[in-house]
Write a structure and sequence with these properties.
Layout: E1 3-7, E2 10-12, E3 18-25, E4 33-39, E5 46-51, E6 57-59, E7 67-72, E8 77-82, E9 91-98, E10 104-107, E11 111-115
Length: about 120
Amino acid sequence: QVQLVESGGGLVQPGGSLRLSCAASGFTFSSYAMSWYRQAPGKERELVARINSGGRTYHTDSVLGRFTISRDNAKNTLYLQMNSLKPEDTALYYCARRTLLGEEDYWGQGTQVTVSS
């Protein structure tokens, strides 16, 4: 069965860095686009970044230049490198598999990122 397991979250000071990982199993990882989303308390879930099967990436404006999505198909793992973190980046971060129809069909359980001094 499809499984997505995030890790790498934690508490970090403003300006710090974290790298999130999403270990995928149960499907041909290299064939799918993958996404990172986040949801802060009281806010709607929002797309952070996306990478397609060919490696083309998209980053939402609020993280452009600070976050980088990448993938290692040999390891079936999705990454999100987060630099210059701000308090407003505090959220639960999820990875998700994206179908060819343009919908996310499987989600991980999330990993908490808290940016605070």
